[in-house]
Structure formats: structure tokens, C-alpha cells
Amino acid sequence: MDWPVSVALAQSVPELPTGTDWSYEVKLDGHRMIMWRTGDGVRLQARSGRDVTAAWGDLALAGLHLPAGTVLDGEAVITTEDGRISFEAAQARAASSPVRARRLASQRPAHYIAFDTLQLPSPNGDMRARPYSERRAALLNLLADLPANTPIQAVSSTTDRDTALTWYNTLHHQGIEGIVAKRTTSP
User: What is the pLDDT of residues 60-112, one digit of tens each?
Assistant: First the structure.
């Protein structure tokens, strides 16, 4: 997989789809980011394709626990003292110089909430053409091997539409933008 990678974007719909082949994830109000674990280290890519590793050094350090050859898609988030996800804090970090970013990270460390596995080390390789259900299972297996205190976590997900609607109706004040619906059989 070549740097930078293009990412899929969510499309707005008037209501959550129904059916047995849907999975629903919370949509966080943070900074979209691709985490590349290379043989030499970790590179972080913004949705635009820009290298943002210097602004998110704490997440790059956490990514060193991933096996080389891993590429994840997710969201960098920062929470306030009351546990609410702060888009403003994420934007401030993203726009910071490396020195200011380190200072901000010491005050409010970031979390990387992964929602997709784009690539895994050999023999798996590029995962993008595989069904969501397979990529999700691979993500959960991968993250289960990380240290217990890692800031890299999987996004909350459910196959129960009623649970997703409850999240949508009750979590907005905590920095949840909405719900993303994905077909479990779709790449």
C-alpha cells in the first residue's frame, strides 16, 4: 500500500438503515487519521494525505506496539476533564508546532479510535477488499495484543439498530457526531 492512501468518507442519510447485515459505529468528533506502522517507526496521515506525525507524537509512540506492516484508519480524539470529546482540542493539536504539540500532549493526551484495518502484516496484506465483518474481527484481534493502557482502541460498534439509535439520541453531548452504518458484507 502506497503513502498517502485515500480514505472512504461517510455519506449522510435521513435515517439508519435496517436489516440483518448492518453494523453501526459511533462517529466521533475528532481528527481523521491513518496510522502507518512501518519497519522504521510510525507515520500518521491526515485525511488530506498530509503527514501529521509531529503534531501527534504521543499516538505515534503508542503505534510502535503494532506489528510492522499495519495500516489503520481511525480518529484522533482528545477528551476534556469531564470526559467529553473536544473537537476544538483536536483541531488545536493538529494545527500546532511540534513543540506546542508536545506541551498539549502532556496536558491532554490523545486517543486513537480505530474503525478499520486497511492493511495487516504478511500473509494478510491489503485488507480493503475484504468484507467489513472480516476487517472488524481482524482489528479486534490486533488490538487485543496491545498493552492494557494503550490509547489505541476500537470504536464502539453494534449490530443492534436500537442500541445505535440510543447512542445517537443520548451521546451527542459527549462529542459523538452521529452513527456510521456499514454493511457487514461490504468492502
Answer: 999 999 999 999 999 999 999 998 999 999 999 999 999 999 999 999 999 99
Q: How many residues does the chain have?
A: 187
Write out the catalytic residue numbers: 27
CA distances from 95 to 54, 113, 126 (A): 10, 20, 31
Q: What is the CA radius of gyration of the chain?
A: 16
Lateral strand order in the sheet of 157-158: 157-158, 22-28, 176-183
* pTM, to two decimals: 0.95
What CA–CA distance (Å, rounded) separates 182 from 132? Answer: 7
Residue 67 is placed in which grid cell?
506489528
Cβ-count burial of 83 within 10 angstroms (0-12 exposed, 13-18 middle, 19+ buried)?
exposed
Q: Mapped to the 3 state alphabet, what secondary structure does the chain carry?
A: CCCCCCCCCCCCCCCCCCCCCEEEEEEECCEEEEEEECCCCEEEEECCCCECHHHHHHHHHHHCCCCCCEEEEEEEECECCCCCECHHHHHHHHCCCHHHHHHHHHHCCCEEEEEEEEEECCCCEECCCCCHHHHHHHHHHHHHCCCCCCCEEECCEECCHHHHHHHHHHCHHHCEEEEEEEECCCC
